[in-house]
Amino acid sequence: MGPNLIFFPQLALDRWIAEAKIDLFESELVLRQYGCRYRIVEAVRVLVEVSGASDDNDLVGKVKSVAYLTELGAEILDTSMLLGDNAYEILPGFLATPQSVSASWIHAGVSSLDEPPMTEESFLARALLDRLE
User: Per-residue pLDDT tens for 10-20?
Assistant: First the structure.
């Protein structure tokens, strides 16, 4: 099984940067509070096919790197993507691969010594939901 990948929408990253919660470098994202590092690549989440054509590429509901979509011949502009006869509404962002996880990240979800630490995935989901509220 491959590494756990996480999609970070661009709008969320913009807000977190303004709130000084993350550092975003050319190919790395760092969650300041926890010291977690992620290698990132530009990506989109394909939300819906809007032209009425069938989704022969099976992209709706998927997250794909911009590099992959460009290789397929896609043209991306803001929240729209054209690929052949298809037009899609997309959510721009970044696909992240965990590079390092600090002890504070893993153990921050522990409320007692009897409970196992939260997994990185569950803690990230909780942290993201807390920040989106």
Answer: 999 999 999 99
